[in-house]
Amino acid sequence: MATERDLVVLGAGMHPWGKWGKNFVDYGLVAAKAALADADVAWRDIEFVAGADTIRNGYPGFVAGSTFSQAMGWTGAQISSSYAACASGAQAMQSARAQILAGFADVAMVIGADTTPKGFFAPVGGERKEDPDWQRFHLLGATNPAFFALNARRRIDVFGDTVEDFALVKVKNSKAGVGNPNARFRKEFTLDDFAGSPIVSDPLRLLDICATSDGAAAVIICTPEYAMKKLGTLQGTVRIRAVSNTTPTYPQVRLELPDIATDSNSVVQAPARGFKDSIAYNAYEQAGLGPEDVSCAEVYDLSTALELDWYENLGFCPEGEGARLVRDGVTALGGSKPVNASGGLASFGEAIPAQAIAQVCELTWQLQGRSDGHQVENAKVGLAINQGLFGHGSCTILSV
Amino acid sequence: MQALSSDTTTLQNVTTTERIPAVEGWFTTSEPYTLIGAKCTGCGTVVFPPRSGSCPSPDCDGAELEPTPLSRKGKVWSYTENHYAPPPPYVAAEPFEPYALAAVELEAEGIVILGQVATGVMAADLSIGQEVEVDLQVLYRNDEGVDHWIWTWAPSAPKGSA
Q1: Which of A142, A146, A262 lies nearest to residue B112, judging by beta carbons?
Q2: Model pLDDT, residue A72
Q3: Contact B23, B40 (CB under 8 A)
Q4: For residues A247 and A392, is the Cβ–Cβ distance under 8 A?
Q5: Strand partners, B104
Q6: Is the CB of B83 less than 8 angstroms away from the CB of A198?
Q7: DSSP class of residue A158?
Q8: Are the beta carbons of B111 and A261 separated by less than 8 Å?
Q9: Band of residue B17 on the pLDDT scale cut at 50, 70, 90
Q10: ipTM over 0.90
Q11: Which residue of B has its CA nearest to A143?
Q12: CA max distance for chain B
């Protein structure tokens, strides 16, 4: 049951994902206006604007909160601008949520948008010898897909997964994405398509790895009192049950982007719960819910194999058994635990600061029964999880 | 190495006897080749890449870390093979040749460290748990023709070797 502290998602809006190379602000404006219309709230009434930053679009990207505020027309609202790599959207969400829970505002906009370059993500320009992100590219050529591949290889050699299991994740997500008008890739892939897909970082093929995309997402969140005044009832409203932004606990013994090495566990013993497990655990604790309560989940499938990890991190199955869930159709649309009913990153590609907010948009519409073409039947609890570089985990739980 | 002059002839003479590392202080440049971590003088925990200023353990106030050689040998934790040239600041050879990367567990230190695998050893030659050891190879040659070296993981007993 939701409590008084559980804020309401009053409206959600997106600019569809794609690759046009336009100014990211243009996408953001479309999402902002769509979210305001969905919430039936005027721009002037927004008291707090939480922007999720993009680091590949010059100065306006670093100060996204004010950039979108100026683009919409200054209103004197309070703002924040957050960067947390892939978790930026969730960080912005938490910023707005904390502001409202502290009593400083009743209604806020959370917004992120991105325009991305083609190809591999590379570090931002300049020679920065002390920056681990620069170091891993310069010294090792350790691209993001290389890290995904190290993880995928572990699954194969330790758990007995096959590359076909990984492909099944893409097949599943691409099928769901066909029904989502906000998805960039609306084509259903089959296992046969994988044979012709080039290997990027062995054992992962191009089709196993998510693309980079342009896109924007925004949500309007508010106190239950504000929603009550607006709607006359809280019945059927989507409530924010948890937002957990979690760091690893020393020693972090799993090699994670962009680190060249893990922490040492020779003096301090590794924690009982690993980093990615703890991201989910903290959100479950906050919400007073468990994996059995989740109707549908949006997880960060940066690679197909990573989606299988998330099943285990979320407690949908024991460690090492994730592949069984995709083989058996458990996580497919229509299965008992649908994952990435939106089509996931496989169908969207990643628009970094917008992605975690898009996950919230998708879950909001799922819980409201508005996801025509990719609707999860009777969805009551939705969970979104992702992990930003440098130990920035995030998990959001919504319920209706 | 700091004494290198800009005279190319001198540089080339030096590189035949001394290897210039692509990153300072992370590995030895003469045999025996080892990675160099930092060890907290307070609690003894080890960290790689080496760092200064603060022990990485949240339970230790130590601020002094001293360089410490790490185990030369470890076991492959996982591995992959890059089939596309990584973007800059990686200096990719042209034409690009696929190469392998391995994450290697050093048992005594309880650390997994990523590195390029010795040239010519590919994913098909590797397996999880396999013993590998530190070696060096040229990472890139700069515009002045000076080779810069990097550590690699090389199989202790390569498959198919006599």
Answers
A1: A262
A2: 98
A3: no
A4: yes
A5: B76, B113
A6: yes
A7: I
A8: yes
A9: low
A10: yes
A11: B86
A12: 52
The pLDDT value recorded for residue B157 is: 66
pLDDT of residue A125: 79
Q: Which residues of chain B does A198 touch, with a Cβ-Cβ cutoff of 8 Å?
A: 83
Mutate to test the interface with B, among A264, A268, A303 (most CBs of B within 10 A): A264
Place of tokens 């997402």: A217
What residue spans of chain A are helical by DSSP H? Answer: 24-39, 58-62, 64-72, 88-101, 132-135, 144-154, 163-177, 191-195, 224-231, 275-287, 304-313, 322-327, 344-348, 352-367
Closest-CA distance, A115 to chain B, in angstroms, reads 19
- Pair A25, A68: CB distance under 8 Å: yes
For residues A93 and A42, the answer to whether their CB atoms sit within 8 Å is no
**Length in residues, chain A:** 400
Per this entry, what is the length of chain B?
Answer: 162
CB of B140 closer than 8 Å to CB of B86: no
Q: Do A143 and B128 touch (CB under 8 A)?
A: no
Enumerate the residues of chain A whose CB falls inside 8 A of the CB of residue B112.
253, 255, 261-262
Closest Cβ–Cβ partner in A119, A150, A263 for B87: A119
- Amino acid at residue number A317: C
Residue matched to tokens 């001293």: B66
Query: What's the gap in Å between the CA of B9 and the closest CA on chain A?
Result: 26
| The pLDDT of residue A164 | 98
State the nearest Cα–Cα gap between B110 and chain A, in angstroms. 5
Q: By the CB < 8 Å criterion, does A263 face chain B?
A: yes
Å from B108 to nearest chain A CA? 7
Q: Do residues B122 and B98 lie in contact, with contact meaning Cβ atoms separated by under 8 Å?
A: yes
Residues A235 and A224: their CA atoms lie apart, in Å, by: 11
> For B58-106, how does the pLDDT look when each residue is reduced to its tens digit (9 = 90+)?
999 999 999 999 999 999 999 999 999 999 999 998 899 999 999 999 9
Residues of chain A with pLDDT under 50: none
pLDDT in tens, A33-59: 999 999 999 999 999 999 999 999 999
Longest dimension (CA), chain A: 60
Tokens for B138, please give them.
């040229």
